[in-house]
Structure formats: structure tokens, C-alpha cells
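Researcher: We're teaching a course module on how sequence relates to structure. For the next exercise, students receive a sequence and then see the predicted structure as C-alpha cells, so they can try to spot secondary structure elements on their own. Here is the exercise chain.
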Amino acid sequence: MLKLLRWVMIAELAAGVLGAGIDAAYFPDNLGLSFLTIVPDMLWLAYFFRSTRVRHIFYSHDWNVAVDSIHPSS
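Model: And here is the predicted structure for the students to work with:
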């Protein structure tokens, strides 16, 4: 499911960039609003590619072990 989620997020980012291109050509006043959607999409995509938490949840399936190592219980 992680690969599908990443591809959906890439498609969403591509649609945002395409929309920004259309806005730049036809609606330049709305270009700032397009970047308000592109920037969070880029940040989420970077998070899903680089996060150790995502790796533990989707790849290793050892989130409980990871939580115990990060925040040991007393």
C-alpha cells in the first residue's frame, strides 16, 4: 500500500504543478494559491520517502519495537 500511496501523492503533485502552469499562463493572480497546495504536497512526499517511522510501519512492521526503543517505558 505504501507504493500506491506514494504514486497517488506523486500524481497529486504532478496535477498541482500542471495546475500552476495553467494558472501562470491564464490566471496569474491565482499562482500564489497554487503554490499553497504544491508546497505541502512536496513536504508530505518527502516525509513518506525519508521517514524512519514510515519505514517501521510499512516495511518492518515492528512499530511497537520501534516505539519501545525510542521511548523506553520505565
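Model: If you want an answer key for the exercise: The first helix runs from residue 2 to 26. The chain has one domain: 2-69.
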